[in-house]
Amino acid sequence: xxxxxxxxxxxxxxxxxxxxxxxxxxxxxxxxxxxxxxxxxxxxxxxxxxxxxxxxxxxxxxxxxxxxxxxxxxxxxxxxxxxxxxxxxxxxxxxxxxxxxxxxxxxxxxxxxxxxxxxxxxxxxxxxxxxxxxxxxxxxxxxxxxxxxxxxxxxxxxxxxxxxxxxxxxxxxxxxxxxxxxxxxxxxxxxxxxxxxxxxxxxxxxxxxxxxxxxxxxxxxxxxxxxxxxxxxxxxxxxxxxxxxxxxxxxxx
Length: 253
Prior knowledge:
CATH topology: Rossmann fold
């Protein structure tokens, strides 16, 4: 199942925009900083009233709406028609005039060369040669991605999962090489490790249903794996899940 199909399925399951509000309850501890906050701060440091930005994997547009007033315009690209329909509906509801949304493949986008000052990517696909083509010279690429050790213990218990078995290959180092190869210079690159604590098995199941760690996750078929994981990773603060994120800022030279 492709990511577009996965998120189409989730949007339908949770009733359209309710998908954004169906997240499970958990607490998070990040000893070396919250990567989501770092990503947002780094992005907004580069923002400006003359900056045209591209949001890769924009989903329902929620993040783009939060920062739209810091850019001249934001174009969102996604392969989920369901989520894009939600984004367009919410854009009209919120009366946000400097955003637009396009259905497409991030590897072969419909945009002209040098169309954007900034491209940002929140856990979306990483087709760096295409992003280099789309950026103006001196433009910036900002990404928060999923590190190779993300949910590693959980995947080991299930014996499968997103990028299963690749936890010894540094995502940060691999991406740095790829970005430099296509003409980027790094401004910032850092790994972040966090622990999430889910308040109950029910909350943990909600989480697993809404993310592509296991695209084929089934609460009944996977019951034995869940029980095995709970037995080992149920802590006083909740069911712990180790997360790994990478944050980059690179400039097209």
